[in-house]
Design a protein that fits this description.
Membrane topology: Multi-pass membrane protein
Largest sheet: none
InterPro entries: CASP_dom
Family: Belongs to the Casparian strip membrane proteins (CASP) family.
Structural class: mainly alpha
Radius of gyration: 34 Å
Pfam family, one: CASP_dom
Oligomer: single chain
Strand content: under 5%
Helix content: over 70%
GO cellular component, one term: plasma membrane
Number of helices: 6
Order of helices and strands: HHHHHH
Length: about 210
């Protein structure tokens, strides 16, 4: 049976070659048709997930959250590390605990640091498709409200700390630590302000569009 099929295919191919050599028209169905490969659903799912499938605004927001995390960490660390300790400072030197304004700035900076860690962790999980901490709707509302609150607290704490820095002696290590801390605190304020604008855009897009 297989031999007869092969002989029939050979005769058909021979007749087609003779017809083409003589210039005769060849039927359209005489040539074997190659089946088109069907795309794998697994390849589609892989291509549509991960970092490339997320909107660019999510990636920008994640980068800004990382900057806020970095700046707030440096701001808080500078006050803790560079300010004089009780056992090391002289009797005339100032300490961090003596200035409520600097303690207020340190507390707000730590709040911004903890919030940035949470947002950074949540954003990485969402982009990597490892899980969702909260729904998109709750996340948009929460991010917008907390961003606005932190923007106000950061600018107020930086303003208060600047007034306290003026009263510290110029030669005191606390003055240098406070200047560095306030500088990075203000940088954190600028970054979270941009995050607040992005959060407002996402919230308006959800409500209006």
């Amino acid at each position: 049976m297989e031999v007869s099929k092969e002989s029939m295919q050979g005769e058909k191919a021979l007749s087609l070659s003779k017809s083409m050599a003589k210039g005769l028209p060849v039927p359209a169905g005489s040539f074997p048709q190659q089946p088109f490969p069907t795309p794998s659903p697994f390849s589609i799912s892989v291509a549509s997930t991960g970092w490339s499938s997320r909107p660019p605004i999510n990636l920008y927001s994640l980068f800004l959250r990382f900057l806020a995390f970095l700046f707030s960490f440096v701001s808080a660390l500078s006050l803790v590390v560079l300010s004089p300790k009780k056992k090391d400072r002289e009797s005339s030197a100032s300490s961090l605990g003596e200035y409520s304004e600097l303690m207020y700035c340190f507390t707000i900076t730590m709040l911004a640091f903890a919030y940035s860690v949470f947002q950074l962790f949540k954003g990485i999980l969402e982009i990597a498709d490892k899980g969702i901490i909260m729904s998109d709707k709750v996340s948009d509302y929460t991010s917008f409200i907390v961003d606005q609150l932190l923007v106000y607290l950061l600018v107020s704490s930086s303003s208060v700390a600047i007034g306290a820095i003026k009263t510290i002696e110029a030669s005191s290590p606390l003055r240098k630590a406070s200047i560095i801390s306030v500088g990075f605190s203000f940088a954190t304020f600028l970054v979270i302000t941009i995050c607040a604008l992005l959060s407002g855009y996402k919230l308006c897009k959800r409500i209006i569009w």
